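Our consortium's second objective concerns turning raw sequence data into structural hypotheses that experimental partners can test. To show how far this objective has progressed, the report includes one record in full. It was chosen at random from the queue rather than selected for favorable results. The single chain below, 162 residues long, was entered without modification.
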Amino acid sequence: MFLNRQGQSFTNVTMAGGSGHLQKSHGFSFADVDNDGDQDVYMQMGGAYISDRFNDALYVNPGFGNNWLSVHLVGTTSNRSAIGARIRVVITENGSERSIHRRISSGDNFGCNPLRKFTGLGQADRVQRLKVYWPTSDQTEVFESLAPNQFIRVVEGTVEVL
């Protein structure tokens, strides 16, 4: 596991985070399994053969005091699961504006992830803008000035966050 150092480099935090494992993983998911606002990691361990078994592993993130936003989209014109929809979160952190992008999908490769999209906000104390692009209706909805550390649900075609 690697820690992103503000886009400049990465630091190996596998041992420091306690996520090192001797067995190989064939699938993993990132999700907030305990609904506390941080990403936990679930790994399906073992191989393709019955004799290559091992217990799966769940690494619960203790959190580090950063802010977050969790967005669940519900399509009405677009598919109900909002597959293909795009989310853009604009924040200001330490005096610099940045955008965080997410695309709704169930995952890829050997793992899958929740349709509810988690976005880490670092120390930003407000979401300046949340933009949601709906692919089927070709519409973009924009929500301004959202508080961090919350779960929100956006239904396509509404003018407010539920």
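The partners drew two points from this record. The mean pLDDT is 88. The radius of gyration is 18 Å. Both points have been shared with the crystallography group to help prioritize constructs.
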